[in-house]
Amino acid sequence: MATFLSRLLGLLRSTLLSAFYGATGGEGLADAYTAAFKIPDIVFTLVISGMTSVVLIPYFLKRESNPEDLRRTVSAFINLFLLGLGLLLLVVYFWVPWLIDHVLLTGWTDASLRSTAVDLTRILLIQVLLMSVSSVFGSLLNALQVYRAYSFAMLAYNIGIIVGLAVFSRWWGIHGVTWGVVLGAASHAGIQMVGALRAGWRWRPSLPRRDRELGDLIWNALPRVGALASEQFTRVILVGFGSFLALGSLLIYDNAENLALVSHGLVAASLATTAFPIFLKHWDAGDWPALGESFRDKMRLLILLAIPATFLPGVLRFEVPDLLMGYLRFTEQDVRLTSTTLLLLAPGALFFNVTVLFVRFYYAIRQSWIPLVAALLGVGTTILVTRLEIEVLQVAALGLGRSAGWLLQTAALYFFMARMSQLRPWLLKSLEDLGRLLIMGLIAGLVAELCRAVIPSPFTDKLDSLWRSGVASLVFLSCFAVAGWLLCIPEIRTLATYLSGSRRKTPSRPLSVNK
Hints:
This protein is an all-alpha fold.
């Protein structure tokens, strides 16, 4: 629920930024704000993000039975991050102008706009320090299975940014928006610290000790760090390409990506998180048939849920950006550019969702180097396709390159699994499921596209977009369900059977609340 609400707040955040600062009709301030996240994100990914879930959570779990040792260990990592990361961020602070000019925004010729990007990047370095401390608290809460503070912290981050957009920007302009990000990060860390305090944590003046177990965990996490870092480097390269395009291109691509990846936050991330311990259990037991069948079931469910959330934005490529972002300074031209980029980006988002489950599967079977190799292949494909098409497609080339990279990354992950003879039968069945579900999505998408274009609308402007969105969504979901029934998709058949009442124990009355 917190993830869902956080996504809604994220869309509101994008709406306000687009409306207040515009894209092609703006001064490039929204682009500077978008680009300013890239360098801090790389630092956070390399130092913190890849380590916390893979290293800190299992490390804390081993000390759960000794509360005093656990408190000391948590304090030790907080102190380490504050000292070590603080020194690193100080070095990065002085290197930011060079990185902006020679790496990130080489295509910008406006010195004042580059200076603004430098200022915003330096402010966001504070966020990295706050979020690193928060990640330690979050790992502790996950290890203790205390999720309330963790969930509220997710919401607080976006709320802080919205406060920056709605309030701080009136006083300090785009700098106020960035200080809103810092406020969100501080709220994120503060809420999780309160949760940790309520769970019994107390600060201790200590640093981590040398530990072979910790060293092994860090070594196993390095491929994950590499895969995550490759994703951030891809974003940096895309920003570099976008800096040679018209002002507003970075915001347009960022909006299109946010819309295309809604399914990732709502479906893929949650399903992959819950599937991981199941994969791990079957692997530890050496039960290859159960592991293969579990992978196939999870993959089919993931694709089934993700196809409507990825295909519909492609069908409603104009209506969705128009309803969510087409206000004030975000002009109709901006909406149309977002529409074209979204059309090329949405199909690739489906394969990105698939990679999320694959990655968790490979981590469970102790093959963490495979996602790294696949990610690097995807990065190379993204760069090559974007470079070849950017002169023709402009900002839409960023979406095409991204989709091509995700597609090749998924193909590589399937290829490596095909080399495992124990899993090959279930992989072939999974590919068959993928083919059937893609056919369902394509049929439903084509019918919805036809109805969207043919059925007349009694409204104009935003009401017209709302009308077409409703009609196309209803048609798509209906066709998708019928096609799933005809192609014997188990989940759809099961749902239809329960809705018809034929498998209820008491058909004459509704199911109980528990059922």
